[in-house]
Amino acid sequence: MAGVEALRTVDLHKRFGGIRALDGVSISIRDGEFVGLIGPNGSGKTTLFNVISGIYRPDKGDVYLYGEKVTGLPPHELYRLGLVRGFQVPRLWHRMTVVENDATAARDRKGSGPLAALLRRSEWLSWERSSLAKRVVDVLHRLSLARVALNRASELSGGQMKLTDISRALMGEARVLLLDEPTAGVAPRLAQDLFKVLERLNREGLTIFVIEHRLEVLFNHVERVIVMHEGRVLTEGPPEKVAEDPRVLDAYLGSV
Ligand SMILES: Nc1ncnc2c1ncn2[C@@H]1O[C@H](COP(=O)(O)OP(=O)(O)OP(=O)(O)O)[C@@H](O)[C@H]1O
């Protein structure tokens, strides 16, 4: 689907009292792209994600998902349409295993809510034959989580928790994945590994838009970087171009 636009924002504005967190943000992301969002602290990145993912309503402007206007739709509606957000602090069921966390994130199960997946013992006895199980196994392999599939979430490392959070998003059949600092709290080597997994998911067709402070990791993996400063898009382009842009350096230094 080359050239299809996955996500577009048009002139988004969002104020908090006197602070213009978003001051006219227009961006466009093609289907299948892997894009990074950077900018100094307080430049509006998380607010942009919150508006795109339906947590905040913009004061002005619109959000489009695959050409459809979705401004102000609540997160669960956007989730149904394929837009999924991972969180800085993964939202996991700590006493459940990785498999169970993924199973409860599945959607479109006929005649059952997510928790019913756990309650039907008979189904679990033949679980390897069910399509739900196939999906869980597939997602675990794609995210290199098969080894810890039967560990409780509370026993996972920081990086594995992030991956499990992402795996839950994929159980919802995400088309566009928003990630806010996936490597926060993750050891440097594992941060590279995590981005390698993201790169693989992207090659398989997932559109990924990621906020990341570790530029040395981000720049190795994404195709394009959007830079925000004071609630606006300062510049955008391939990582090597953005890295050399003196305005980007100025924005970071100015915020120190
Ligand atoms: N819920 C809120 N209430 C009041 N002010 C807010 C709120 N959310 C964000 N802001 C303010 O809006 C501005 C943009 O914040 P935002 O968190 O979007 O920036 P950011 O680029 O994600 O920063 P960081 O890199 O530190 O996470 C900041 O001045 C912040 O203090």
Automatic annotation (TrEMBL):
InterPro entries given in the database record: AAA+_ATPase, ABC_AA/LPS_Transport, ABC_transporter-like_ATP-bd, BCA_ABC_TP_C, P-loop_NTPase
Pfam families associated with the record: ABC_tran, BCA_ABC_TP_C
Domain spans labelled ABC transporter: 7-255
GO CC terms, sorted: plasma membrane
PANTHER family noted in UniProt: CONSERVED COMPONENT OF ABC TRANSPORTER FOR NATURAL AMINO ACIDS, CONSERVED COMPONENT OF ABC TRANSPORTER FOR NATURAL AMINO ACIDS-RELATED
Gene Ontology molecular functions: ATP binding; ATP hydrolysis activity
Alphabetized UniProt keyword annotations: ATP-binding, Nucleotide-binding, Transport
Organism: Pyrodictium occultum
Transport among keywords: yes
Keyword Transit peptide in record: no
Name of the featured protein: ABC transporter ATP-binding protein
Highest taxon in the source lineage: Archaea
